Amino acid sequence: MGDQMQFIVEKLNQEPFKKNYNLISFDSLESLQLLQLLNDVLGEIDPKHAVDIREELPEQTAKRMLSLLGILKYKPPGSVSDLSAFRQGLVTGSKPVIHPLLHWLLLRTSELKKRAYLARFLVKLEVPAEFLQDDTVADINKQYEELMEAFKNLHKEYEQLKISGLSTAEIRRDISAMEEEKDQLVKRVERLKKRVETVQNHQRMLEIARQLRLEKEREESLAQQKQAQKSQLFHAEQRLQRAQLQLKEMQDAVADSKPESLMKKLEEEINFNSYLVTEKIPRELESKKASVYLLQKVVAEPAMTQSDLSALQSEINEVNAELNQLIEKRMMKYEPTDSKFSMYRQQASIISRKKEAKAEELQAAKEEMSRLERQVQQRSSQAHELEGSEILTEDELKQYVNKLRSKNTLYKKKRLEIAEITAEYGILQRTEELLKQRHEAIQQQLQMIEEKKGISGYSYTQEELERVSAVKSEMDEKKGQTLDNMSEMVKKLNAVVAEKKASLAPVIKELRQLRQKCQELTQEREEKKIQYDSCAAGLESNRSALEQEVKGLLEECAQEESNYRYIHCMKRTLEVQLQRAKQEMKAYVSPDPQERRKAIREQYTRMILEQENLGKKLREKQKVVRESHGPNMKQRKMWQDFEQLMECKRECFQKQQNQAAIGQVIQEGGKDRLVL
Question: Which domain of life is it from (predicted)?
């Protein structure tokens, strides 16, 4: 814990914090100061967190810090129950929680800066699945993911460029060198222009040279096209030859589909398998056994150094040289008949090697064909299990996909139509409700006017007339046989209507006057409403200004309250310190020696005396060490020389043993070669 605090204090005293702490002042920090210090470190990692924690609530501070620690992948020590204690300690500013967190942050500040920077662009926003059903939202989300992948690739390229060692100074030097070359070329071109200007018809010659250059470039492009077409023709001829060969093989297979041909194929296969069993596999097995035996012998031998390996390599080279000399001598002693036999032997060995290679190729091709057949069977069985007994072909699958796309577009179109109809239905429903409300209000006003004028029931009579006329129209349509009865009823109704009209004529005149008066009042109401709206707008602007002023005062009040709390906390801290000072003074002045021993001054005095005594002892010990330093160093030097002498003897003894063991291995290897 002390090393941890020492490391934290050293880091905080360096750039960019410069806190000038020591262990005592750092350990005496209060919870609020510790939280502010942790927030400063987090602000150095991510500048968005460089705020004053007194200006925000403790819950907001804890939530902000926990979110950043989650991005930085900080894992607090302990189990799940300790996680709740960690959160509580982070809110209250507990030292057992803050100190390990500060140590972890300061230990890997540069790495965490990089992680916080990348988190700004790589922390993916989770979009609910129901929102992704919208095409616009889905397209924007897809574009967002593509931009995130592009940022990842660019950041990787940037890191690779940083690692590759390309510096801006080197690039600047290259650019300056290229600019110098460019200036030299420009000067050279100007000199050539001056030399050409003295020649007659230089413009025409320049034009001819330009045309020549263009023709040469065209010739090169045509040559490249010709080469490309030749390569395409060559590939096409190869494809044609392969197709013809496949056609011939298929025709031969169809033509030779007889018992004799099948027996021939079976005999060839049996011969091939018998060759593998009798010749190839036993030979490979023997070679593997020999290599395993040699490897076991090598493993059983003691470990060799680089010098032993170099000595063995030199001996191998000498043995190979002797072997080559013996082969040359033997070839010089060969007779002509033996040379013919050697030629046949070489041909036979070449043929046997070719046979082995072709057998291996055939075996690999058969294994590949069987693997592909098993894979095809497996895929076909999976397709049957998923789709049933019928498997769609490529054309049927394309038709099915096109059909699904057309249905999808039709579904989207119908969905838009339904949305439009639903919106229109809502508008019409609202219009119907408004019209019903206006109708009821007008009916109530009309009834009140009729009651005032003494003609109550006029509107009801009019509605009754309208209803009767509607009934009449329905009766006219449905019952054409009862026209006479209906005509009499209409006459009666007309008479009643005439009587009602005659009785209502003066009322209608008064109603016209009232309508004119209503129009005047409506116009006056509109003017008053305009005045009201202007006055309301002025009051609204005044209200918004007052609200802003109130908001500023509330913020100032919150700031003052925060300052008050901070001052109150500092006051409590000072009171506690004053209380401790009083207790210290009381204990120091007390006549009781036990109480006086509890005083901090007495404790520090005892500690000073102990340290002074310890210093005296250490100085005496230092004096003794200085006096005995010279003889001890001489004795140490003698022991080192003796140790080097014994180490040299041990190495010489091991080298003699290794050389004897290597000679024995070489003799056994030579015997094995002679046996083979």
Answer: Eukaryota
| Residue pLDDT, tens place only, 344-398 | 666 676 777 777 777 778 778 878 887 887 777 677 666 655 544 445 556 666 7
| Number of domains composing the chain | 1
Q: Name the nearest CA neighbour of 92 among 130, 35, 132.
A: 35
**CA 398, CA 410: separation in Å to the nearest integer?**
18
In a domain, 84, yes or no: yes
Cα 507 from Cα 310, distance rounded (Å): 136
667 pLDDT band (50/70/90 cuts)? low
DSSP 457: T
Q: In terms of Cα–Cα distance, which of 44, 49, 2 is closest to 27?
A: 2
- Say if 515 falls within a structural domain: no
Average pLDDT, the chain: 78
d(CA 400, CA 406): 10
142 token code pair: 């897809």
Kindly report the CATH number assigned to the domain that includes residue 92.
Answer: 1.10.418.70
What are the distances in angstroms from CA 302 to CA 347, 532, 662, 669?
44, 110, 10, 16
Q: Are the C-beta atoms of 105 and 112 separated by less than 8 Å? A: yes
Q: What dihedral angle (degrees, nearest 10) is formed by the CA atoms of 274, 277, 282, 284?
A: 100
Residues 6 or more apart whose CB falls under 8 angstroms from that of 87 comprise 62, 66
Global model pTM greater than 0.85 = no
Residue 396 lies in a domain: no
In a domain, 81, yes or no: yes
CB 121 within 8 A of CB 148: yes
